[in-house]
UniProtKB/TrEMBL annotation:
<dbReference type="Pfam" id="PF01512">
    <property type="entry name" value="Complex1_51K"/>
</dbReference>
<keyword id="KW-0813">Transport</keyword>
<keyword id="KW-0411">Iron-sulfur</keyword>
<dbReference type="GO" id="GO:0046872">
    <property type="term" value="F:metal ion binding"/>
</dbReference>
<dbReference type="InterPro" id="IPR037225">
    <property type="entry name" value="Nuo51_FMN-bd_sf"/>
</dbReference>
<protein>
    <submittedName>
        <fullName>Proline reductase-associated electron transfer protein PrdC</fullName>
    </submittedName>
</protein>
<dbReference type="InterPro" id="IPR026902">
    <property type="entry name" value="RnfC_N"/>
</dbReference>
<dbReference type="GO" id="GO:0051539">
    <property type="term" value="F:4 iron, 4 sulfur cluster binding"/>
</dbReference>
<dbReference type="InterPro" id="IPR011538">
    <property type="entry name" value="Nuo51_FMN-bd"/>
</dbReference>
<dbReference type="GO" id="GO:0016020">
    <property type="term" value="C:membrane"/>
</dbReference>
<dbReference type="InterPro" id="IPR031001">
    <property type="entry name" value="PR_assoc_PrdC"/>
</dbReference>
<feature type="domain" description="NADH-ubiquinone oxidoreductase 51kDa subunit FMN-binding">
    <location>
        <begin position="82"/>
        <end position="225"/>
    </location>
</feature>
<keyword id="KW-0479">Metal-binding</keyword>
<feature type="domain" description="RnfC Barrel sandwich hybrid">
    <location>
        <begin position="5"/>
        <end position="58"/>
    </location>
</feature>
<keyword id="KW-0677">Repeat</keyword>
<dbReference type="Pfam" id="PF13375">
    <property type="entry name" value="RnfC_N"/>
</dbReference>
<keyword id="KW-0249">Electron transport</keyword>
Amino acid sequence: MLLRMELRQHVGAPCRPVVQVGEHVKKGQLIAEPTGLGANIHASMYGTVKEISDTAIFIEADEEQPDEFVKIKETDSYLEAIQEAGIVGAGGAGFPAHVKYKGDIEGGYVIVNAAECEPILAHNMEYVENHAAELVRGLKYLVEITKAVKGYIAIKPHHTKALIALGKASKEEANIEIKYLPNMYPAGDERVIVREILGVELQPGQLPSVAKAIISNVETVKNVVAAIEERKPVITKDLTVAGRVKDEDAQSGKVFMDAPIGLPVSYFIDQCGGIQEPYGEIVLGGPFTGKHGELDAPVTKTLGGIIVSMPLMKESRKLGIICCECGAQEERLEQIASLMDAEIIAEARCKRMTEVNGRYRCDLPGMCPGQAETVLKLKSQGAEALLISNCED
């Protein structure tokens, strides 16, 4: 089995390899380190380095894979352990966690994002249901690190099993509280969480730190606990596989916990019986914000979903597209249109989109203003059908 360890699994520049071709590496061994903003990368399995390119380290995994892993070095603080472990935002953002947790929020709040916002994905909730006490411990570590006054767990109320487990795990914790999020997409957006939990309306481009808050995904907190308590680096990822696979039980979503980073997504599709023909595309991530992928794409620190989509209908009508930060923007919609053999003749953005530092952001995520005016404009430009991406409010 060939592992492909991407050198950029985080916000920032690609990491610099610290191993050589032909070198035998152990699970947990440091194989690449950042040159600036970034996060350490560790081997996820025992094996031999076969190739090093500008973008990845390729490792041929051994047939025998002991459970033991190389532990991160001893550190003077929890924050240093998080840095050594190479923890990044596991929900998809990939921002280096040790940099985020350095933020000055003394007297503020740490919020665990347990929204599991994208439809179909289920691995966060499976972890919470079975390891709620561990999640609470992780939140307590982060409250201590950041000098926050309180920790919140933000979750949708329909996740009943997870709520019961969290209630039991946190009942004796005076500064840990469960807060409800609305059952809509994108409830897991950081600005939505700050708005719903703290009552602060962040402007497009503003970070939660403006509201003296730090927000971390469930799996990021899981990795914090592993680094502090087990000295374990980030070498695995929790995943959900769904869609056009042959295993009927997996079609609505099959969870893989602690999947080795670097394995191809085809490995996990095969664990679900393989692809059921015909199909459309491989989507890496969730239905709203996932990207087109290939079967040889590797699992990374930020990958949460592997979805084999339905066949994409062929479209002969001229398309107009409406882009939205909460879902897909121009590049993704253009890609989908191309897979449909469709011609795009007009483009527009949701009226809530506003430009901030060269990027279009939604000024009120989760509150769709309606698109009738935009639709009529696209129709006047010759669009005969629409391809649209928006929030689900």
